[in-house]
Write a structure and sequence with these properties.
This protein is of the alpha+beta class. It has 18 helices and 19 strands. The strands form 5 sheets. Strands 16-15-12-19-17-18 form a 6-stranded mixed β-sheet, sandwiched between helices. Strand 6 and strand 7 form a beta hairpin. Helix 1 packs antiparallel against helix 9, helix 2 packs parallel to helix 4 and helix 3 packs antiparallel against helix 4. The protein is globular and about 75 Å long. The termini are far apart.
């Protein structure tokens, strides 16, 4: 039996993330089914799962970096990774608030994981989440978080006592949410976001006690609550939250008729009715003072506004009618990226996702920068941007496959390190009825080559074979800046040296980008080639591309060169030779 932690150290944080992901995976469909606020789009459970998946992946990356060491990572590193992962992977209104809750906890737990620090962390988390929401509403996850923190207060030095008290307080608060928020009472459900938070706190209880807690909310008397669930015809039945779904349970669209009450929330149309047309989400690099102005502008444009983060990186979520204005506000505040816009269509008075007839075939491609994302989008692909130090999780790839909305999907990961992640995403998508082929591209230039020969009108297998062949015939290279002195296959490099990596291995050590790039090109073209692809990073001048094109023309007859702007990417230069 594993030893139970006396405080929340890095190993405990890792276990917590893993158990929370398992819990949300079990309860995802049930949480989706009771999602009626703020928009009845039936995806709260899925959004929470994807948010925690990103947090767990970030923690795993911290541990992977310590695999060669004899000690576990520092607690501060683990909790900060958890918070950062949740921030960059947050989905929807609920996921964004959960990311802020984890960030609020991490700010305190980085200094210690004992009972006293955990009490303070829960209080900090509840306050930070409430401040992030433009118009807080009672009867939501905000209430559940606040009452969990209140229940954990006291002087007891035992970590297990504090965690259990917080969990029981959250369950009791969740059971009362239908009394606090009229839309929940009319639908006969508890708050979906609060239900997800109870699952996450339940995972924390299991982490520190070694026993999974009783699932579901509790009434004030301590008995398991029956959460009535709306069924066809408008009748209501009792269903233990966390129990087995019944046939006919609403998927979030089947709300009872009736408009908002006079004392309804300020944040959204309470009944999921004629609300804004779009959900806009993006990550934003901006200073605090710029974000303050952004909040004011977005609040005037729409509702369900949640802005979380700090230290220069923010996650923005808002429901608006003018999606372009919401993105433009982000551009004025800083640099928005990973922009996601979802259209809500009004149907029978309720907001639902638009569901068009699926296309026959689509391509999903991971790209390292905005420039290549635009290029691939123009070619008809669905893109996922992999920012430096922020590899996409499998849930993000599954989400992209869903957004592609096709019966057949070709997945191009464009990174050897994403092989297992992409394989997991493909397997998940297959269980949902999508035919997915994974082409094992190891670099963005291989993905460009594969996309160039993609023909959706030919047979699926034939198309996949052609794309795989094009990728395999493309040698790839990239330039990188050495961060420290180290041994490489090309010799010893010093910090600041320019490294030329060919097919993943260091082949050239140079003093500057132009000279190293020329040497790399010569080595690659020595084995032959007909086309050179250059992808320039954000800060690389166009004059470098001109100089390299001239170098290829002078030294390698009959070789063409094509140049793309990659935008904000890790490497200053990517090179492909076909």
């Amino acid at each position: 039996m594993p030893q139970l932690p006396d405080d929340l150290d890095a190993v405990a944080v890792r276990t917590w993330c893993s158990l929370a992901l398992e819990a949300l995976g079990r309860e995802r469909a049930e949480i989706d089914a009771i999602n009626v606020y703020p928009i009845a789009d039936g995806d709260t459970g899925t959004n929470l799962y994807l948010t925690v998946e990103s947090a767990a992946a970030a923690v795993e990356a911290v541990f992977a970096a310590h695999e060669t060491g004899t000690t576990a990572p520092a607690t501060a590193d683990a909790v900060r990774a958890m918070a950062h992962g949740a921030l960059i992977g947050a989905r929807g209104n609920s996921g964004t608030i959960l990311a802020q809750l984890l960030r609020g906890m991490a700010g305190v737990l980085a200094d210690g994981g004992d009972a006293a620090h955990l009490r303070l962390a829960l209080t900090s988390a509840a306050g930070a989440a409430r401040q992030a929401v433009a118009h807080p509403v009672e009867g939501t996850v905000l209430t559940v978080a606040a009452e969990a923190a209140d229940a954990a207060r006291g002087e007891d030095p035992d970590l297990r006592t504090v965690v259990t008290a917080a969990y029981e307080g959250a369950r009791a608060a969740l059971a009362r949410t239908p009394e606090q928020l009229a839309v929940l009472g009319r639908a006969g459900v508890v708050d979906a976001g609060g239900r997800g938070l109870v699952a996450v706190l339940g995972a924390l209880v299991e982490t520190v006690t070694g026993q999974a807690p009783v699932r579901g909310p509790r009434t004030a008397s301590g008995n398991a609550a029956k959460a009535p669930v709306t069924v066809d015809g408008g009748s209501v039945v009792g269903l233990p939250v966390g129990g087995t779904p019944v046939e006919g349970v609403t998927d979030g669209g089947g709300l009872p008729a009736g408009g908002p009450s006079a004392d309804g929330p300020l944040d959204c149309p309470e009944d999921g009715g004629a609300g804004p047309a779009f959900e806009v989400i993006y990550l934003l690099e901006a200073r605090d003072e710029q974000v303050a102005r952004l909040r004011t502008r977005l609040d005037a444009l729409g509702d369900s506004l949640v802005v979380v983060g700090g230290d220069g990186l923010w996650h923005v979520h808002v429901h608006v009618d003018d999606a372009g204005a919401a993105v433009e506000a982000g551009v004025e505040a800083g640099r928005p990226y990973r922009i996601r816009i979802t259209h809500f269509a009004t149907e029978s008075g309720h907001d639902v996702r638009v569901q068009a007839e699926p296309a026959q075939r689509a391509v999903v491609v991971v790209v390292p920068g905005d420039g290549l994302a635009g290029l691939c989008t123009e070619a008809g692909a669905t893109t996922v941007i992999a920012r430096p130090g922020e590899p996409p999780a499998s849930g993000e790839l599954v989400d992209a496959i869903r957004r592609a909305h096709a019966r057949e999907v070709v997945l191009l990961p464009n990174d050897a390190a994403l092989r297992h992640t992409a394989a997991a995403a493909a397997e998940q998508a297959r269980t949902e009825g999508v035919r997915v082929a994974l082409v094992p591209t190891r670099a963005a230039v291989q993905g460009i080559a594969a996309l160039a020969v993609h023909e959706p009108d030919r047979g699926f297998d034939e198309d996949v074979v052609a794309m795989t062949a094009a990728a395999g015939a493309t040698r790839y290279a990239e330039l990188a800046v050495a961060e420290r002195q180290s041994w490489t296959m090309a010799g010893i490099c010093q910090a600041g040296d320019i490294l030329g990596l060919i097919d993943g291995d260091v082949a050239v050590i140079g003093a500057d980008v132009p000279g190293t790039a020329r040497t790399v090109l010569d080595r690659m073209l020595a084995a032959g080639g007909e086309l050179v692809t250059l992808v320039l990073g954000e800060d690389v001048p166009d004059t470098l591309a001109d100089a390299l094109e001239q170098h290829v023309r002078e030294g390698h007859l009959a070789v063409d060169t094509v140049v793309y702007r990659g935008g904000h990417q890790r490497a200053p230069l990517l090179i492909g030779v076909e």
